[in-house]
Amino acid sequence: MNLQRPLLNFSAGPAMMPEPVLRQIQSDIWDVSGTGIGILEQSHRGAYWDRRIGECVDSVRAAGRVPEDFEIVFLQGGATMHFALLPMNFCPPDTSSDYLSTGVWARKTLHEARAAHEAGFAGEARCAFDGATCGYDHVPAAGECALNAGARFLHYCSNNTVYGTMFAEPPAAPAGVRVICDSGSDMFSRPIPWDRVDCVYACVQKNLGVAGTVLMVMRRSFLETARRDLPPILSYIEHAREGSRLNTPATFGIHVTGLMCDWLVSQGGSAEMWRRSQERSGTVYAAIDASEDFYRGLARRCCRSHLNPVFFLPTEDLHKTFLGEATVKGLVSLAGHRETGGIRASMYNPFPVEGAHCLADFMRAFAAKHAGVTAR
Question: Which one from 198, 206, 263, 274 is the annotated catalytic residue?
Fold first, then answer.
């Protein structure tokens, strides 16, 4: 099977994967590690999987330089399920937690936490910053957040895929308040300052694998504060205690995450991913900034996402023309999210740097061709 593909896939997720990993997956579906059985058929209680899940944990730890005092757990449900499970585990009904609402997914996180509270399963979920008041065009500076010193945790989304904003570093929480990071779109795309966070989680289909698998990395001292009175299937402590095999795990997804982490390490790790990410996004932003307002970015320059540049053209007709001509050139999945419209160029860890240059060249040629069109 020839995996050489002519398209550059800018999908926001599930996203493109590196060819060596795809070729390994192709082989492993038929026969993994010479066992005579493909990865899709391996028992999660068998000898092969006893070894493989440990290898995947080691691969994650190496790729993210995860300290030994953090527990690595593979879960299911997509990140959205954990929007409710996190407060259920760490914010009992008589307590509260703080949320920074900086985009679509951060807003949904707050909504799910409030639903858990209203159902009596978790404490109050407070909005410490509401990005709706500024059109989600930036992430907050410290002075913009109304934080509660008594909160059980502060939750934030490190990269906002829909509006194209990114935190440069974790927000500062009051002393004693734990920090939870939804890293769904940027996990291991840059080094994580583990001393400033207590839990980092992601559904892995953007940077680290396939849809349906959640990677959760929790400081053990934080994990120990979780409630013990939840049903086992909803308890992070139970999932960690059972080595991610409390029930049948997403074996294929975990295997692919291990392969993706091995590939990441072979490429130079998260520091190299960050360098490439800056080069890719810098190339696209340079085309935006040099266009004399033909292209208009959404995010303030101080907090532009290095993974999801979002921008607009002067008219809706031009958006459609841009997308059509880009597709002909092999540049696909560039349409913005339905909430914002416009153009979104999602470029995660496996996306080639050369692809960003191809997009920027197309943008410059398109702007020159339509230079006389102004917004209306």
Answer: 206
Cα 11 to Cα 29: distance, rounded to the nearest angstrom? 25
The values of phi and psi at residue 326, to 5°, are -65, -40
- What is the Cα 270 distance to its own chain's centre? 14
How confident is the model over 104-139, as pLDDT tens digits?
Answer: 999 999 999 999 999 999 999 999 999 999 999 999
pTM of the model: 0.95
Q: What does the radius of gyration of the chain's CA atoms come to, in whole angstroms?
A: 21
Question: What 3-state class would DSSP assign to 160?
Answer: strand
Q: Angle, to 10 degrees, between the axis of helix 78-90 and the axis of helix 104-118?
A: 50
In 3D, which of 281, 319, 264, 201 has the Cα closest to residue 10? Answer: 281
Query: Active-site residue 105, yes or no?
Result: yes
Q: Which residue has the tokens 């940027």?
A: 186
Same fold, 21-266 and 269-369: no
Residue 47: DSSP 8-state = H
Alpha-helix runs per DSSP H in 65-187: 78-90, 104-118
Q: How do residues 274-291 score in pLDDT, each as one tens digit?
A: 999 999 999 999 999 999
Q: 269-369 is classed in which CATH architecture?
A: Alpha-Beta Complex (3.90)
CATH annotation of 21-266: 3.40.640.10
Answer yes or no: 30 catalytic. Answer: no
Task: Using CA atoms of 335, 338, 341, 345 in order, give the dihedral in degrees to the nearest 10.
Answer: -40
User: In 3-state terms, what secondary structure has residue 229?
Assistant: coil
Which entry of 28, 98, 182, 198 is annotated as an active-site residue?
182
